[in-house]
Amino acid sequence: MKKYLGTLLAGIVASFTLKAQVITHRDPVIEKMAAAVSADSLRSYIDALVRFKTRHTLSSQQHANEGIGAAQQWVLQKFRQFASGTDGRLSAFIDTLTYRPDGKRVDRPFVLGNVVAILKGTDPLDRRVLMITGHLDSRRTDVMDRTGIAPGANDDGSGVAAVVECARIMHQQPFPVTVVFVATSGEEQGLLGARFLADQVKAKNWQLEALLNNDIVGSNHSNETRIINNTQVRVFSEGIPLNADRDAFAKIRSLGLENDGAPRQLARYFKEVGERYVDHMTVKLVYRNDRFLRNGDHSPFVEKGYTAVRVTEMNENFEHQHQDLRTEQGVSYGDLPEFMDFEYLRKNTALNLVTLANLAKAPAAPRNVAYITRGLENSATLKWDPPATGACAGYYLLMRETSSPQWEKKIFTPATTITVPYSKDNYFFAIQAVSAAGNESLPALPGLSASR
């Protein structure tokens, strides 16, 4: 008996020791999906897109092997190839709009087309939608040149390749929520396809929870500075909602939430989840909506109040962006596959995939999160209601100091209220719902309880 108890105790101690050594939990399903992202597949997509010579928005839509129309058909066929084994869960189509001359970058009527694949969620009661986008169109130095060769390998063949690869892998798994994959058109002519898509989302009343826009994610070095780095990627996010009214601004100011807009929470989530699964990769949070004085396809969604961010390589190379193919003083210009890093693109694609998958497997965010205040106190008490949809096994209280750019602590609780000995003066808090497999929702920030 004594020997038996000793063996049992040793086993229990070993069990606790093993659990204590688990620093980061990885969902094995998502881990397997991340491992399936292939640099060879991504290269094949880029090579196929470059063969269309140009994908300028105003280029031919009738030619079988050249122009934007042929490129759209190629993406559509890839989506439909994936859809063939999904029993109707994945559907694909080209969503079109006749666009008139606008006196800017469109000088004739044309049919604007976004290539869309919808992976329908398995839970009919869960209306959440997740989306990933990249723009299919390319350009030369002259944005109106629709006939010259514009390979667009990195800008934005890389983003489209990431979208296609995520569709290839994700369609093999059932998710309770709907995931939408889109190759937009018209980005270089003024975000035309993205504006059309945002209008469609609004008109169809989709419950869009998160949008990841990938634009220029496949090169690891810059011109001028000659920095080479394939271990970092930037995520741009808006801080204060553009559609906030006077009362909303007053609430943001009173709670100190100028750095906590919904896109910024998605960017932090992308960083935490992405770095959990993708080795040798650091997500750099850039606290502005987009690059200096520039814009991207996520912006029309941000303008409408949706949660959207832009993913972009760490060091852009302008010798291979918006350039005619040529060689000058020994420098090769043009956006060709030979200037890309497909291992870097693989990692950036995997970051997107694991973020989408983790969100897709997670419950919805908790509802009605609020502080309970009874006067001056050095502790913080929060309460909330369970999420409207999704199987929830508990919650994380997230904490960070007010000067910290990202969440620093996570405290689990199975209850819908928690008190911690940390001052609301010095910390920001949020609540996440979590599934039994450890998949977290986006954070829900607390307001003030009416019963305080």
What are the low-pLDDT stretches, counting only 5+ consecutive residues below 50? Answer: 1-22
Overall number of structural domains? 2
- Structural class of the helix and strand makeup? alpha/beta
Radius of gyration: 23 Å
Shape: globular
- Measured by DSSP, the beta-strand proportion falls in 15-25%
- Count the beta strands: 17
Distance between the termini: 57 Å
- Major sheet: arrangement of strands: 1-2-4-3-5-8-6-7
Helix percent reads: 25-40%
Write down the overall mean pLDDT: 93
The level-1 CATH class of the largest domain: Alpha Beta
- CATH architecture classification of the largest domain: 3-Layer(aba) Sandwich
| H and E order | HHHHEEEHEHEEHHEHEEEHEEEEEEE
Q: How is the biggest beta sheet arranged?
A: 8 strands, mixed
User: Which oligomeric state applies?
Assistant: single chain
Q: How many DSSP helices?
A: 10
CATH superfamily (homologous) name of the largest domain: Zn peptidases
CATH topology of the largest domain: Aminopeptidase
Q: What would a concise description of this structure say?
A:
This protein is α/β, with parallel strands linked by helices and 452 residues long.
Short key terms for the protein model shown above:
452 residues, alpha/beta, Aminopeptidase, Immunoglobulin-like, 2 domains, eight-stranded mixed sheet, four-stranded mixed sheet, 10 helices, 17 strands, globular
Secondary structure layout plus pairing:
Elements: H1 2-20, H2 28-36, H3 39-50, H4 67-83, E1 90-99, E2 110-119, E3 128-135, H5 157-170, E4 178-184, H6 192-203, E5 207-214, E6 232-236, H7 246-255, H8 262-277, E7 282-286, H9 299-303, E8 308-313, E9 326-328, E10 331-333, H10 342-361, E11 367-371, E12 380-385, E13 394-401, E14 409-413, E15 417-420, E16 427-434, E17 447-448
Parallel strand pairs: 3-4, 3-5, 5-8, 6-7, 11-17
Antiparallel strand pairs: 1-2, 2-4, 6-8, 9-10, 11-12, 12-15, 13-14, 13-16
Helix pairs in contact: 2-10, 3-5, 3-10, 5-10, 8-10
